[in-house]
């Protein structure tokens, strides 16, 4: 899936399994396979979208990339360095280059810390400003950069609205001058109008500061608007990956197709059959054999039951994990052709 | 609200810590029970601080010279049975104890002794609790297990019994008394702090701090503890009364450095021998214990009401 050297961050066959333990001896009885073999490459300066249902492992993938949890297997390389193998103080320089903005702006700020002190803290940790007054000046500039003003430095998080708090969280993430930011559903807790403001702010900041984003969301509209390339995640694996435009116009995987068609379109002439997915997402403890999507896939066959699907590049830069070449364009009479692998 | 204030300062007046404090005082003022608690605890602390000025602090082991000047209190009018006991007079408002000392003076000297032990025990328990409880909750795993098993050992032995054994082994003195009570007290604080940290550390801002590269010490003691210490402080205030009760219970059963020591439990112990003939000897020290512990309990309740963030925002 990845072949050139222009990648800021790459994962190679990344796994994150959480053991389920019971009893006093902590016997491991099963694993929650949150991330189950993911290889992605994020290019410098792009916005990489990660989309999927709740519980499909997108947040865990983000946390594993950031080394907030240790990967069970596989590697993460940031600017060519294997950060998945680093520990403690060796990891600290990379903490400066990677930042994260969380979904819930109410909970992601320390309620007893003033905004000023929260902005100064990362500068203190990474010794960014040489003097305190310089740091304070930088903190003020950061607030202005995200659309707040210097007066807000002395205030506390509960004095702000959700959108303002998310701006603060972004300002704090920018305080260490990172090159990569994981945006974990940064707008899903916000009003639609505020969402748009935050998204515009993120875009402007990306251009101004030359940032690379990993944009995690379940909101397809936001992904479509924000991302250059998008990966669709299902039960811990990337099932389809392409440029966002291609992915939305011509989905190749039945899951992506179903996801896209479940978004209502406000145009009666384009009314189409809602491809509602049957059933629930299976438990990540007991992932189905063969193709993990087969339990909900309308096209599943015997082959899907027994064999895990291969990763195939259907077009240049458009990868899917599926046994079949399904022609969605031929609407009702869908054609299923086995792939030559 | 003063209209002349500039825009900026007014907004920081409406929010921020000063406004928080104002609101807290407002809540306090509305609640007469809490206000009583505040009054009693402040008064007892003030009395304790000023007691060396009111009563000569070295006078308690000196035998008084003149015992004949006392007469029956016309209001209370208790019978004098013991030659050394006197039921109340202008010179001895609460009467004299079995050593012929002014009971009021002895109580005034006893309050700082008890309060000092109580503050020392509670403050040390809070420090130990914050440190080890925080560590156990944040680190988890083997550290957590080790610290919890140690607290289990202490919690398994009945508190009073453990304290008695310790005082007997270490010898009778005020520092021993403090150490003995502290030994039975600290495990509760470790457990309380641990449970608070356990729930606080799962909040997203902790994760954000980790992503920022903040170290464990900074995250735990700089952020998590600050956000989870309020229940511990409330417990500490409530416990000042309980420690006073425990300490006086220990001295009441005779674990005192000296029978002459002015200490509320010891004074009661000296008084119980004369309970039928000179009941004021146990009544007044006992009442003092009751009032002070009640005062700190009410104060603790009030602090909980005022600072409980669920009631605030």
Written account of the structure:
The complex is a heterodimer of chains A (341) and B (313). Chain A has 341 residues and is α/β, with parallel strands linked by helices. Helices cover 28% and strands 26% of the residues of chain A. An eight-stranded mixed sheet of chain A has the order 7-8-9-4-10-11-13-12, sandwiched between helices. The two termini of chain A are 16 Å apart. The model of chain A has no long low-confidence stretch (mean pLDDT 86). Chain B has helices at residues 7-14, 16-30, 32-54, 103-139, 141-156, 159-170, 174-200, 204-212, 216-228, 230-252, 264-272, 280-307, 309-312. Chain B has 13 helices and no strands. The longest helix of chain B has 37 residues, at 103-139. In chain B, helix 4 crosses helix 10, helix 4 (103-139) packs parallel to helix 12 and helix 11 (264-272) packs antiparallel against helix 12. The chains are: A alpha/beta (341), B mainly alpha (313). The A-B interface holds A 63, 66, 68, 91-92, 95-96, 98-100, 102-104, 107-113, 121-122, 125-126, 151, 154-156, 158-159, 169, 172, 176 and B 8, 11-12, 15-16, 203-205, 207-215, 218, 223, 226-227, 309, 313.
List the SSEs and their pairings.
The complex is a heterodimer of chains A (341) and B (313).
Chain A: E1 7-22, E2 27-38, E3 41-43, E4 47-51, H1 58-65, E5 73-78, E6 81-82, H2 92-97, E7 98-101, H3 115-125, H4 132-145, H5 162-174, E8 180-184, H6 192-209, E9 212-217, H7 220-226, E10 229-234, E11 237-243, H8 244-249, H9 254-261, H10 302-306, E12 311-315, E13 318-321, E14 324-327, E15 335-338
Parallel strand pairs in A: 4-9, 4-10, 7-8, 8-9
Antiparallel strand pairs in A: 1-2, 1-3, 1-5, 5-6, 10-11, 11-13, 12-13, 14-15
Chain B: H1 7-14, H2 16-30, H3 32-54, H4 103-139, H5 141-156, H6 159-170, H7 174-200, H8 204-212, H9 216-228, H10 230-252, H11 264-272, H12 280-307, H13 309-312
Helix pairs in contact in B: 2-12, 3-4, 3-12, 4-5, 4-7, 4-9, 4-10, 4-12, 5-7, 6-7, 7-9, 7-10, 10-11, 10-12, 11-12
């Amino acid at each position: 899936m990845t072949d050139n050297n222009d990648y800021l961050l790459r994962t190679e066959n990344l796994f994150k399994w959480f053991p389920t333990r019971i009893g006093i001896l902590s016997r491991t009885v099963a694993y929650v396979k949150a991330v189950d073999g993911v290889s992605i490459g994020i290019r410098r300066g792009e916005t990489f979208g990660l989309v999927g249902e709740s519980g499909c492992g997108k947040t865990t993938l983000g946390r594993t990339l950031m080394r907030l949890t240790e990967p069970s297997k596989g590697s993460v390389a940031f600017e060519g360095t294997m950060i998945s193998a680093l520990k403690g103080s060796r990891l600290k320089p990379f903490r400066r280059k990677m930042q994260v903005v969380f979904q819930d702006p109410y909970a992601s700020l320390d309620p007893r810390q003033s905004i000023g002190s929260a902005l100064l803290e990362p500068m203190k940790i990474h010794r960014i400003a040489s003097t305190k007054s310089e740091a304070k000046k930088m903190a003020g500039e950061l607030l202005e950069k995200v659309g707040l003003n210097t007066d807000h430095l002395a205030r506390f998080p509960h004095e702000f609205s959700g959108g303002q708090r998310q701006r603060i969280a972004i300002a704090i993430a920018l305080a260490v001058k990172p090159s990569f930011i994981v945006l974990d559903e940064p707008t899903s807790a916000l009003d639609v109008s505020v969402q748009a403001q935050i998204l515009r702010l993120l875009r402007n900041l990306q251009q101004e500061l030359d940032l690379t984003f990993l944009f995690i969301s379940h909101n397809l509209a936001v992904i479509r608007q924000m991302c250059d390339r998008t990966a669709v995640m299902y039960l811990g694996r990337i099932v389809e990956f392409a440029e966002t435009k291609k992915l939305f116009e011509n989905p190749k995987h039945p899951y992506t197709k179903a996801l896209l068609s479940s978004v209502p379109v406000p145009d009666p002439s384009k009314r189409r059959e809602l491809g509602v997915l049957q059933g629930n997402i299976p438990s990540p403890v007991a992932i189905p054999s063969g193709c993990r999507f087969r339990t909900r896939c309308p096209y599943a066959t015997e082959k899907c039951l027994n064999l895990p699907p291969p990763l195939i590049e259907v077009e240049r830069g458009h990868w899917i994990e599926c046994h079949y070449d399904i022609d969605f364009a031929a609407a009702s009479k869908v054609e299923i052709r086995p792939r030559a692998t | 609200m003063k209209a002349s204030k500039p825009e900026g300062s007014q907004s920081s007046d409406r929010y921020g810590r000063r406004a928080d404090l104002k609101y807290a005082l407002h809540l306090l003022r509305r609640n007469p029970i809490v206000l009583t608690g505040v009054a009693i605890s402040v008064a007892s602390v003030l009395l304790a601080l000023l007691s060396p000025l009111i009563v000569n602090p070295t006078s308690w082991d000196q035998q008084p010279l003149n015992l004949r000047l006392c007469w029956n209190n016309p209001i209370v009018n208790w019978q004098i049975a013991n030659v050394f006991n006197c039921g109340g007079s202008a010179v001895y408002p609460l009467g004299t104890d079995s050593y012929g000392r002014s009971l009021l003076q002895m109580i005034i000297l006893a309050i700082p002794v008890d309060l000092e032990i109580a503050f020392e025990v509670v403050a040390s328990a809070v420090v130990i609790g914050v440190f080890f409880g925080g560590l156990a909750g944040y680190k988890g795993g083997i550290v957590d297990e080790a610290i919890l098993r140690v607290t289990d050992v202490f919690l398994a032995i009945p508190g009073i019994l453990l304290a008695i054994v310790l005082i007997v082994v270490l010898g009778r003195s005020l520092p021993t008394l403090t150490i003995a009570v502290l030994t039975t007290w600290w495990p509760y604080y470790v457990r309380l702090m641990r449970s608070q940290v356990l729930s606080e550390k799962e909040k997203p801002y902790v994760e954000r701090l980790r992503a920022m590269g903040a170290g464990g010490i900074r995250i735990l003691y700089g952020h998590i503890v600050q956000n989870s210490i309020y229940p511990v402080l409330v417990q500490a205030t409530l416990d000042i009364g309980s420690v006073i009760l425990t300490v006086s219970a220990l001295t009441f059963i005779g674990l005192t450095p000296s029978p002459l020591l002015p200490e509320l439990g010891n004074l009661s112990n000296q008084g119980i021998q004369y309970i039928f003939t000179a009941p004021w000897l146990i009544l007044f020290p006992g009442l003092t214990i009751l009032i002070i512990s009640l005062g700190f309990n009410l104060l603790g309740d009030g602090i909980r009401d005022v600072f409980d963030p669920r009631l605030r925002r």
